[in-house]
Amino acid sequence: MGRFEGKVAVVTGAARGIGFAVATRFAEEGARVAVLDLDEANAVDAASRLPDSGVTSDPSSQQGGAHLGIGCDVSKTDQVQSAVARVVGELGGLHILVNNAGITRDNLLFKMTDDDWDLVIGVHLRGAFLMSREAQQHFVAQKAGKIVNLSSVSAFGNRGQANYATAKMGIQGFTRTLAIELGPFGVNVNAIAPGFIASEMTDATAARVGLSVEDFRAAAAERNPVRRVGFPEDIAATAAFLCSDEAGYITGQTLVVDGGAKLVS
Ligand code: NAP
Predict the structure, then answer these.
(1) I need a surface site. Which of 51, 149, 179, 198 has the fewest CB within 10 A?
(2) Where does the pLDDT of residue 61 fall: very low under 50, low under 70, confident under 90, or very high at 90 and above?
(3) Atom 7, ligand 1: residue with shortest CA distance
(4) 121 lines ligand 1 (CB under 6 A)
């Protein structure tokens, strides 16, 4: 019996990378999972590749299977409202929300455009706010729920990422505040601050600084005590723990998952 048998989880930005690994982990442990991502075809494709939780699907669902893929820009109120309504209608409830969708638009401050700022703040902060506001109605009504927000070690400051660091530190304040407001209703709210995780996001950074993916990852591995980079599965395992019953006494926390890199930098 998996830890998430009978649960419905929504993971945003889950068509690839960390989000897909988180969605996979929840599905492996018995949850029915809604993959939300910008592109509906990518979201549906990712949902179709998740392990089957063995739950009979809702016959009214267009997609069949135990999981659901939905195109949704998390920074748009109407899209968030209709996506959450579809999840509850087609998967039969909502118990877990992982706010993972993210983008980078790196630039030194003097070159950062209004759009670079607004897009990053919009996806990370407004996105987490809209998704959480929509989900909490269901959590509060059933007096149970779990929210995990993706922060980053960049929250502590990172050259070229004034927009992203601000959003990721904002996520930590948002997490603590939701923990205070929703705790009395049986809802745990925590954040994960990953260090370097091998994904398309960090591969794109390698290209931007003119390094091969291999050299960029090797340099990151060299900088931390465990001498390896992180993988999406490291974050998936952390998210699964924070959303499990065993973590019921943990709320409002940001767990740094970086192989100890912050200890030595
Ligand atoms: P990724 O590979 O770039 O995946 C991000 C996903 O989010 C993509 O599928 C992307 O869709 C989707 N997305 C972007 N904007 C969206 C929106 N407005 N609405 C819905 N979905 C949207 O990134 P990742 O490395 O897996 O990172 C996942 C999360 O972890 C992010 O919040 C990131 O900031 C955080 N994080 C990552 C690292 C790392 O080292 N990788 C470290 C610390 C924190 P498209 O492909 O269509 O753009």
Answers:
(1) 51
(2) low
(3) 13
(4) no
Mean pLDDT for the stretch of residues 58-75:
79
Kindly give the interhelix angle for 213-222 and 200-208, rounded to the nearest 10 degrees: 100
Atom 39 (ligand 1) nearest CA: 197
Q: Which one of the listed residues 26, 164, 174, 196 is annotated catalytic?
A: 164
Please give the distance, rounded to the nearest whole angstrom, from the Cα atom of residue 102 to the centre of ligand 1.
4
Distance 57 CA to ligand 1 centre (A): 28
Annotated catalytic, 249? no
Please, are residues 186 and 145 in contact by the beta-carbon 8 Å criterion? yes
> Which distant-in-sequence residues (6+ apart) come within 8 Å of 85 by Cβ?
none
What is the atom index within ligand 1 of the atom nearest the CA of 74? 19
Banded pLDDT at 53 (limits 50, 70, 90) = low
64 pLDDT exceeds 90?
A: no
Ligand 1 contact via 99 beta carbon (within 6 Å): no
Q: Give the position of tokens 């502590």.
A: 156
DSSP string, 161-230: BHHHHHHHHHHHHHHHHHHHHHGGGTEEEEEEEE--B-SHHHHHHHHHTT--HHHHHHHHHHTSTT-S-B
Question: What gap in Å lies between CA 103 and CA 120, rounded to an integer?
Answer: 6
CA distance 142 to 223: 45
190 in contact with ligand 1, CB cutoff 6 A: no
Q: Is the pLDDT of residue 247 over 90?
A: yes
